[in-house]
# Entry
Amino acid sequence: MIVIGGGLAGSEAAWPALKAGASVTLYEMRPTRPTPVHQTDRFAELVCSNSLKSNSVSNAAGLLKEEMRRLGSLILTAADAAQVPAGEALAVDRTIFADVISKKLEVEPLLTVVREEFTGLSDLLSHLPESTAVIIATGPLTSDALAAQVAALTGQDHLAFYDAVAPTIDASTIDFDKVYKSSRYDKGDGAYINCPLDKQQYEAFYAELLAAELAPLGEHELGASYFEGCLPIEVLAARGPKTLSFGPMKPVGLIDPQTGRRPWAVLQLRQENLAATLYSMVGFQTRMKWGEQKRVFRMIPGLENAEFVRYGVIHRNTYIKSPGILEPTLEMKNHPSVFFAGQITGVEGYVESAATGILAGRNAVRRLNGQPGYVLPVETMLGALTNYVANYDGKDFQPMNSNWGIVPPPPERIRDKREKNKALAARALDALASSDIEQIFRPDPFLEIERELETTAS
# Structure
């Protein structure tokens, strides 16, 4: 089997094949060819946020995680081991997370890692033996050369949208006399650092944010659109003065203990690593020039002397028009031995990308064994996502993340939203259990995780 791309989806896709006894050649172009946002050569490096969203099964993203755990997810096992405090969310120490995944893959005797940009897709497919399957999991930063070959393979031009990264701050440079720790509505532990703004501070910050100078876009990036689920903070701000205070800076559920009142607006900082030395600015992905980021963001109370370990950047994401091209099994209609996985399919988000890798990897194993691929029930979150990318019949296909709107409604109306979500989650897990995909592969327990973490820390 050939897996192209060593990100979240590629790592998940390679894992079941290796455990099933198949030889896997994994192509990863880093570090031979770097990307605008990656910083290491590790597999499954997280580049935007360190959060994998909610862990609650009554949340759409939380349900998807539970489905993945029941399918033996490599990514979530590593995430649980590298977890840092984040309230109800699952956030990880990026370095430990990527190290654990890389070590688990690299010790596999049936894995061959090729550290070079893969550009031979056309030649490979023209001479592809029946005993080989190919999984394209190159993610949103697919190289231009390979993207052109993918466009030729799918018979259409690839689409693109912008994604952005939020800045990361050195925790020792935060003024803790002006901030407070709390999770929204006090759910979970007090995992977030909250920077409160009164009305005057918010209006001054908002004005400077709108006036900030932006980094120019490359010529090949002009004309691409932003993804609504990850808009730069300045784009949100341009929609109106209340957009931020009702969006990423909403203060609800975050009472300031110093005043006993709710602030006008709040910036939340989320822990990035186990040592709690780094914090990221939640929802503050940006295209501002680096000097402007320092100037504007230091207007926020508590960040007057903040040192930015990593500035926010913006980059292009690439994905295909999957409807009409892919089956719900994630294999191509016209090339049954070719699978796609990850954000290039038109799913959006870390967990969603990894989940499609699980399905593509397991179905590629099925293909090699002469068996039909699994089509997951649409009642499951992963089944709903793959149904969306394969069968969406609207005019404007856009990347989709896990949400309750893509699963069929319950047979009976449930007025209470929380109870409705619980019912949908229970139905999904029952549907997953009634299918036989759970039995295709369950990995051995990660007995070495603690030892690996200790080695990494030392």
Observations:
- The chain has two domains: 2-163+316-457, 168-312.
- The mean pLDDT is 87.
